[in-house]
Amino acid sequence: MNNVTKPSAISAEDIVFTYPDGHEVLKGLSCDIRSGEKVALIGPNGAGKSTFMSHLNGVQMATSGKLYINGIEVSPDNLNRIRRMIGIVFQDPDDQLFCPTVFDDVAFGPLNLGLPREEIETRATEALHIVGLDGFEERSSFHLSFGERKRLALATVLSYQPDILVFDEPSTNMDPMNRRKLIHWLQHCENTILLCTHDLDIALEVCNRCIVLVDGKIVADGPSSEILYDRRLLEQNNLELPLALMTHELLHGLLQTEEMDSEHRTIISNFLHAHRHVHGSDGHVHFHLHAHDHDHGHLHTHADNTHSHAEVEHTHDSDQPHFDVAHAHDDASLTTHRTPGDGHEELIAASPQHKERE
Question: How many other CB atoms are there within 10 angstroms of residue 222's CB atom?
């Protein structure tokens, strides 16, 4: 196993930012984001998330402290280099769409890099394909829906192929289908990703690490599986558990405390029944939910009391991809089941009385 530490993509050292009127927004912010990491920057309104984001490409410069992108200091002399390495997708797509056609918007970045025309066309076409806007080249961005403009804004960044992608509230005002497509793309993207978001569900699905920023200071930094399950930490900082976790808490509670007929109890139990399957020689793993009505022998191995969450795309015989979701709470009893002879493995989440994390 390769244990070589990846280089820093973003490194902030005691960043302070104060407006001319004396209002201090960032108060000694320090963090290190490694190349290839997917990190969520979360916090209440006014925490300084957008201000920190604007420092990453030098739109605003720190009052004191140092900030590095891929080892290069963010300074007036280095801004051209910095802005080629980091792409920021704004919350409002209209902030970065201004050309007469979709193609012109997407080609603007490569054009300013001085690339040859053939390369510009190739990059623009590939970026539009990635975000699902093939055939939109000659349309005006002002005639697109909000969700289409959000995807176009992403394409304008992808076209100049930055190493680091920063998103300001990427899922805001997106319809469910386009939100799901965005999540799927983010999950499979190999770039370093920083999500500045209030949508903790997208943070839970995409990011393996969370940084909590409150009043210009980092108050927590750790695995998403810890930060996003810590009700006390989140509520102390004007945040809530992700909706997916709140739903599972509610359903666990209903099973334990409410009287209901067997049909409804079975429906809820099956929904909370999580399976982990390993397929093929490549060890492909996916999670999904279904009723556990098959009868086979099991070898039981109890797992640690940890949370499990995953969402992946896989294809059945119909070749139609679909997404499966599974959750197992840290207070649930997790049991790994392996069927002898076929390599079939399952992770079963029981439904005990939910206990709030101390």
Answer: 14
Please report, for the chain, the start and end positions of each structural domain, with discontinuous segments joined by +.
8-241, 249-349
182: three-class secondary structure by DSSP? helix
pLDDT > 70 fraction of the chain, expressed in percent and rounded = 67
124 vs 174, higher pLDDT: 124
DSSP 302-320: EPPS--EEEEEEEE-TT--
Q: Classify domain 8-241 at the CATH class level.
A: alpha beta
Query: For residues 278 and 283, what is the distance between their CA atoms, to the nearest angstrom?
Result: 6
Count CB atoms within 10 A of the CB of residue 175: 11
pLDDT tens, position by position, 92-111: 888 899 999 999 999 999 99
Q: Which residues of 115-147 are buried (b: 16+ CB within 10 A; e: fewer)?
A: beeeebeebbbebbebbebeebbeeebeebeeb
- In angstroms, the CA 270 to CA 260 distance is 15
β-pair partners for 20: none
* Beta bridge mates, 214: 217
Model confidence, pTM: 0.70
* Contact assessment for residue 170 and residue 142, using Cβ atoms and an 8 Å cutoff: no
